[in-house]
Amino acid sequence: MSTTRSVGTLVAAGAMVMVLGRVAMRSVSVVSTLLLVRLLQPADFGLVALAAAAFVIADQLTTTNYAVALVRRPEVDRDLYDTAWTMNVIRCLILGGLVAATADLQAGMLGDSRLAPVLMVVALTVSLDGLVSIGMVRLQREFQFGKVFRYQIAGKILSFLLTIALAFIMQSYWCLVLGNLGAKLLLIPYSYFLAPHRPRFSLAHWRELLHFSKWMMALNLCLAADGQGPNLVLGRLIGVEAVGRYNISYQIAATPVTELAAPIRAPIYSGYARVLHDLQALRRQFLEGFALICTLTVPLSVGIALTAPEVQHLALGPRWTGTETLIVLCALYALVDSLSHFTFNIFSVLDRQRRFAGIYALLVLVRLPCIILAALWAGAEGVLAGMLATGLINGLVWHWQAGLLLGHGLADVGRRVWRAFVAAGAMAAMVLLARDLLPAPTADTLQAGLRLVALAMLGAGTHVAAQLALWRLSGAPAGAERRILDLSASGLARLRGAWSRRGVGRKAPTPPGTAQPGAGVPTI
Predict the structure, then answer these.
(1) For residue range 104-159, what is the model confidence (pLDDT) as tens digits?
(2) pLDDT for 155-187, tens place per residue?
(3) Rounded to the nearest 10 degrees, what angle do helices 3-39 and 279-306 cross at?
(4) What is the mean pLDDT of residues 389-411?
(5) How far does CA 337 lie from the centroid of its chain?
(6) CA distance 347 to 307
(7) In angstroms, rounded to a whole number, what is the distance separating the alpha carbons of residues 136 and 147?
(8) Are the beta carbons of 329 and 493 closer than 8 angstroms?
(9) Which end of the chain is less congested by CB atoms within 10 angstroms, N or C?
């Protein structure tokens, strides 16, 4: 087996574990959201989102991405792990102290005094985060994503249980804050159970880690401004309720990219690191991975946008009436942003952080004024329309720059993914036509559910049929379609084998004295 194939197998297996893990976590999140949106007001979610935005900006400014450096390094010794752990503890303590010390100032700047005590609890949660076992990074290096999944799902379940219990008791935004704090207190010892590592304070490799992370810090400033810009603009110019509506809409609409595209990035990055010095193999992994991401996420994101009215009615209820437009824009914005972010690992693995940060800074400097003007002109919908428009431009820029590093052009990318987008167009046309033919929607929940199921099945069938037809007309080339079909066939074969073995195990007992083929031979 070649090195590229073996790495590809590891990446595929790791990606599958992470995707399944995220699906499980999303299931927990969906149940949590469905309960919380009926217990809390949109403004409650907006208040916590603003507190999180203030923290995330400070967090991103000081994030060092030691995990990226450790995964990328060919060999890692005990001192390097200890140095990374020590520097992370120091960073989290300083960050928590800064958030606590500036809580009143941040509350004043964001125009809501209730933020100050919320930020104090957030500061404590941040400080505790530095105590998580550095051994979790070793699990990623060794492709032990099953344990990473167990850690993540444990955190989601703990946070869910605590938050829901507190929501019923307190009926306020405090359940969101205290639920996260309680989950963090329980997760720290669990991280050492999954990834044992007796930490020692050490700064032996601080120069190496700081050198790697200096451009990552600049990059994180761009990430903070880009990711939290909508929250701050909406909170300052429109109000806390608009922030809450945007955040809940994004949570729902971005499900395909957060539960498929995001978890696959960690195994893909680990795979990139394995073929770092083989540019051809690296380019092939990048293009194949991007085609697979597009094939999976494009129809799902477009499908959510097409069924936004039904999704809003069923998932959010009457308190959130009017958010369907936000769901449409969030679904499309999250899709184009995720396809842009797929290129980010290439800059990291090739140690092009300086170039990465420079490009990102220019794109953020274009995006922020656009969304501020859009907010003044068209409110929350304008902000998201501006994010979507700039996201399309950003996607072209990022893939152009990644191609310069890997030796391919935008046309090479287009040849891999065009079928997914054309099939999504066919799906959109069919669903919009069917929507006009169906009875007018009412307030009835059952009708909304039936409409959602009918439109989803029609859209999914149309997309799959269209993409497979286009693939066949193109000569059935090797690519995402072939990989998905092969994986599906392999999975079905394993299921048949499992059922066959179960059937063999349940055979009627053989009458005494009847000879058995292979009797006396041990079996596994």
Answers:
(1) 887 777 677 888 888 888 888 888 887 888 777 777 666 676 777 788 778 878 88
(2) 878 888 888 888 888 878 788 888 888 888 888
(3) 30
(4) 94
(5) 11
(6) 36
(7) 9
(8) no
(9) C
Residue 221 contacts residue 165 (beta carbons within 8 Å): no
**DSSP alpha helices (H): ranges in 438-511?**
445-473, 480-505
The C-alpha atoms of residue 266 and residue 128 are separated, in whole angstroms, by 24
Q: Which of 63, 86, 170 has its CA nearest to residue 134?
A: 86
Closest CA to 487 of 4, 12, 11: 12
Question: Does the predicted TM-score (pTM) go above 0.85?
Answer: no
CA distances from residue 5 to 11, 233, 282, 283, 412 in whole angstroms, order as listed: 10, 47, 12, 14, 22
Q: Above 50 in pLDDT, residue 261?
A: yes
Retrieve residue 487's tokens: 């994986």
Rounded to the nearest 5 percent, the helix, strand and coil shares of the chain are 80, 0, 20
Among 419-428, 450-459, 486-495, the range scoring the smallest mean pLDDT is 486-495
Q: Is the pLDDT assigned to residue 469 strictly greater than 70?
A: yes
Q: What is the pLDDT of residue 502?
A: 63
Place of tokens 């009436």: 321
* Higher-scoring residue by pLDDT: 321, 189: 189
Q: Produce one character per residue of 469-500: b if its CB has 16 or more CB atoms within 10 Å, e if not.
A: ebbeeeeeeebbbebeeeeeeeeeeeeeeeee
Using the structure block, give the residue that is written with the tokens 């501020």: 372
pLDDT tens readout for residues 34-43: 667 766 777 7
CA 512 vs CA 508, 509, 515: distances in Å:
12, 9, 9
Query: Would you say residue 217 has pLDDT above 90?
Result: no
Cα dihedral sign, 18-21-23-25: negative
pLDDT for the residue numbered 457: 94
Burial group, residue 393, by CB count within 10 angstroms (0-12, 13-18, 19+): middle
* Cα pseudo-dihedral 459, 460, 463, 466, rounded to 10: -100
